[in-house]
Amino acid sequence: MAASRDGSGASQIPILFEDNHILVVEKPVNMPTQEDDSRDPDLLNVLKADLKHRHNKPGNVYLGLVHRLDRPVGGVMVFAKTSKAASRLSDAVRTRQLDKTYVAVVHGKPPQPSATLRHFLWKDTRTNTVSVVREGQQDAKEAVLDYKLLGSQDGLSLIQIKLHTGRPHQIRVQLAAIGCTLYGDQRYGSAVNKPGQQLALWATALAFEHPTLKETLRFRSLPPVQRPWSEFTLPEL
């Protein structure tokens, strides 16, 4: 099943699940999650327009954004179709009950095969960049993730990541901080990446309690079979 910006098929968005309360989709790479300064088509408004078209809804369509993916990142996302669902899913995000798993290809090899990374991050809103700072710095926020090394070859490594917090650019900055810059990351790894390379970070799995049915839902999405992903055997999720 696919959604399109205006029903014409101009922007295909794979739909993984939909009911009266939630919409789960696979976000394409290089599409903003929501409207930004670029004014490029964004996922939220594309999906709203598609819901309006497919369901022949009059007036404005409600679709709640409860979590985000960076523009260059693809993978599974959930949206709320009702305010009740939005409230409950937002609570799940806040209480860390929205279980998010990613895979990334990085330069080098992490110092340990698996570990928990804990940093304090500060965002410069003028440049939209994030940096690791000391604990206690004003406006710094704690960032926590678990990683597991899945394989290494030819100077690259495949890493699985479980996020415990959802800070801007968190995975990219925390892995760069341990010497494992993401493949294709121009913002935090211009010294080792070439212009035009696609960022190798993908949201592969999402699990959460349905906002009304109270049952656990699990969804998966795998990155495209192209370099650098094709260099590795991706995990079963």
Task: Break the fold down into its secondary structure elements and pairings.
Blueprint: E1 2-3, E2 13-18, E3 22-27, H1 43-54, E4 64-65, E5 74-80, H2 83-94, E6 99-107, E7 114-124, E8 129-133, E9 141-153, E10 156-163, H3 170-177, E11 201-209, E12 216-220
Parallel strand pairs: 5-11
Antiparallel strand pairs: 1-2, 2-3, 3-5, 4-5, 6-10, 6-11, 7-8, 7-9, 9-10, 11-12
Write a compact overview of the structure shown.
The protein is 14% helix and 35% strand.
Structure description:
The protein is built from 3 helices and 12 strands, in the order βββαββαβββββαββ. Strands 1, 2, 3, 4, 5, 6, 7, 8, 9, 10, 11 and 12 form a 12-stranded mixed sheet that branches. The protein has helices at about 45-55, 85-95, 170-175, and strands at about 1-5, 15-20, 20-25, 65, 75-80, 100-105, 115-125, 130-135, 140-155, 155-165, 200-210, 215-220. Helices cover about 15% and strands about 35% of the residues. By secondary structure, the chain is mainly β. The longest helix is centred in the first third of the chain and has 12 residues, at about 45-55. A hairpin with an 8-residue loop joins strand 4 and strand 5. The protein is globular. Pfam families: PseudoU_synth_2. It catalyses: a uridine in RNA = a pseudouridine in RNA. Belongs to the pseudouridine synthase RluA family.
